[in-house]
Structure formats: structure tokens, C-alpha cells
Amino acid sequence: MRTRVLLAVGLTMAFAPSPARALEDKVSASVDAPPPPLPYKPGLVLDSSLGAQGFTGEFGGVAGPGFWLHTQLGYEFARAFMLFGEGDLYFTSTSRGQDETKARAFPIFGFGAGPRFTLRVTDRVGLYLQGSAGFSKADIATNALKILGFGDAEKLGLYFGGRIGIEYYQLDRHLAFGLNFGVRDATNFKKTGGSDLPLLLSAGLALRYSF
Asked: Which keywords does this Swiss-Prot/TrEMBL entry list (predicted)?
């Protein structure tokens, strides 16, 4: 019996890690573990989206969908609330309303401001809803749209819009990637004497940087 006990003790000591080896394994594990995320703090947030945008209504029968760039800079007072200013650029042409010999390519630009409300579903995923108001116009030669019945589009006109999106936050608290969808009522793109609702629909991929 004593021999068996001594043999078991000997085997245990032979295969058990030494104190030095156990300490080395512990240090190695702590080095390999990812660092904890930096704590949240309020501050400036730069958010840019690339995607596509297009009109519904009668103006959609004149100008087709095109490339869209949107940028906004805001101040996030808390995880759930931010105020921002925005600007965007949308490239299209009159190819739907005119033949190739008369069609004109032109950009539409806009700028405005509004609030954003964010719900952090997890530490890495957030859902947001934002609204904005501002002004937009088509940057095109004078009367080029007027002859098609959209003279007000050549002047700054009021818009109201909303956007929903999802963000995926990186371990680096400064960075996040997102996907968003928006709708905007561009009042000055209604046809003269018309009664339709000229909506701008957009979708894009976003990159967010928190300072």
C-alpha cells in the first residue's frame, strides 16, 4: 500500500508543471488576450457614406439613380444622442427624360442638420434613427430643367428627411462600419403645377470615426 502511494505521488510530481512554468503560462495567456476596450467618452463623430440614390415621382422619370456621397459631422453628447450637420452629393442625368443628344449630366447637392438617436444592442452593435432638414438644388445650366417642367430644382429648396442604420463597432473605439437607408422629401423637385411627392431614396455603406 505504501509503495502505491509513493508511486502515485512520484507520478504527480513528475507530470505537474513547475511553479516557474505555471507562472510563464499565466503571463503568456495575459499577453495573448485582447486588450479591454477603451471607455466611451462624448465627442466629435465623422460619418461618411457611399452608395446610390434615386428619385420617385415625376422627377424620377427624368433623372435616374446615380452615385451618392454623404458626409456628416456631429457631436455625440451621450451614447444615445448626437446633433450633426450634413452634406451630400448625388450624380445623375436627364437621360430618362431626353434623348442622348440632349441629355445633361449634373450633380445635386444638399446641406442640413438634425439629431440622431442610437440604441446600443450590444457593446459591438448599434441601431440608429436620425432626422434632418436642409436645402438642396441641382447644379445645372439655367433653364435646363425648367424646359422639362422642373424650374424650382435649379434653386435652393427645403428638404426633410430621415435615415435608419446599423453600426458595427470595432475594438478600437474610434472606428465603426455601418449600413444605412434613407428617404427625403425634396420639395423643390416637384413638377411645376404637379401634385406628386418627389422622394429621394438612398442606401449606402458607412465608415464612422469618433475623435
From this structure: Signal
Interacting residues of 34 by C-beta distance below 8 A, sequence separation 6+:
171
169-194: pLDDT as tens digits: 998 889 999 999 999 999 999 998 88
Evaluate whether 71 touches 86 at the Cβ level (below 8 Å).
yes
Cβ-Cβ contacts under 8 Å for 73 (sequence gap 6 or more): 44, 45, 46, 47, 84, 85
Nearest Cα neighbor of 132 from 153, 117, 156, 116 is 116
Residues 6+ apart with CB under 8 A from 13: none
Can you list the domains of the chain with their CATH numbers? 2-32 (no CATH), 43-210 (2.40.160.20)
Q: Which grid coordinates are listed for 12?
A: 504527480
Question: In whole angstroms, how far apart are CA 93 and each of 35, 64, 113?
Answer: 50, 7, 27
